[in-house]
Amino acid sequence: MADLHDPPLPWSTRLWFAFACFFRVLFDPQFAERAWQAREAVAALPPAERAEPRQLERDRAGGAPAAPEAAAAAAREPAPAPVTAPAPQTAPAVSSALQLLSLLQREGRLVDFLEQDIASFGDADVGVAARMVHEGCRKALRSHAKLAPVRREDEGAKVTLEAGYNPSEIKLIGNVSGTAPYRGVLRHRGWRADDVSLPTPVAGHDASIIAPAEVEL
User: pTM above 0.85?
Assistant: First the structure.
């Protein structure tokens, strides 16, 4: 192979060589095979090493790094970080919510009460049923969850919300305009679950069964 510093061939020589190669490839299978292999070898080289000698000479004259130097410089550069695809969003688990609903049903018959049509019941009957549901559900809730109010002030107290308050903890109601600080009246203290402890389901448990059907024998 000619050295990269050799002067390029004149145009007339290249024209004659092109015609000679054309007929040699047509009538000499062995030469054609060698020429084809040389073509594939050049195609496999990095782009910088496939440059024409004249272009390489111009790069050297202009101070650009030669192909081996450029390859070495590229090898020293850190590889780009792999692009990771975002994790697919999964549906939130509902087994814990169903388990808590099952506890409220077991202790306070909450689902029975909510599914019952009480439009025809008198206020006294509704009051008695509500008291029973309240007692049972309160027992279940306090047995498995530790709740605390979001705000410690009494309801009806005047409060001031400075800039940077957590909107997930405090909901603005009424005539909301402008920016913080906000001054208003606490209408509901809110609730926060400090701890939740649910029973560990047994193997084969179906969380979608809130309450099993009962058959008396």
Answer: no
